[in-house]
């Protein structure tokens, strides 16, 4: 997508980050992917042997380049998580592939970087309790299903109730919002619930899916948030992580506004706030 080129260009141009702030993900061993996804599914991806039906559900034409890109994104989120442990926050300029299940892809997601990152941290004893905060306009159905029986990961999804996917999985906490929900209602609900979840679950790591398809200008989002409201949403999450000394990894998620400038501005705000809050 165009935004993956434009966003880093904008951040560099305005001086929010420098070239040395970027990292190129190291290769991720397949065992960490297989720790979340079925081996047979990964093999089918590698061999480009998904059925026509399986390919159709992903929304992408299957290619070797696409699969390698997806694996690269997974590595980026894992490495961003490791940076978060060191610096308080780490960010993947892509990722947020929350619709991928253990055995299949859906909704433009082949593999689930949120789940892979959480499992990597848990299995390497780098975290004990991970809070996945998914504020994309679409429910994180794949993530919810992957962790439905794992008490070490709390899945929190706040999304458009009438939006994709039509069949919702059961997150540990789902908040479905009506169409046209605006800034003040959204921010009040988020503030109240995030504080409560941190107090009760007491995570030692957070993963934040910060999709900007919550914007009123989004072509498919159906909510009513302004760019300023979306920025305040990010501030609530990042300041909560900082105040409670919880390392946080951010992955960008969706954004489909007609004007690419709206998408870039909303995503750039997340990085601007990361600099303000953590550094």
TrEMBL record:
Coiled coil: none annotated. InterPro entries: HDAC_classIV, HDACs, His_deacetylse_dom, His_deacetylse_dom_sf, Ureohydrolase_dom_sf. GO terms for biological process: epigenetic regulation of gene expression. It holds the Pfam family Hist_deacetyl. Residues 3-267 form the Histone deacetylase domain. This is Histone deacetylase/AcuC/AphA family protein. GO terms for molecular function: histone deacetylase activity; hydrolase activity. Belongs to the histone deacetylase family. It comes from Mariniradius saccharolyticus AK6. The keyword Hydrolase applies. Keywords: Hydrolase. It comes from the Bacteria.
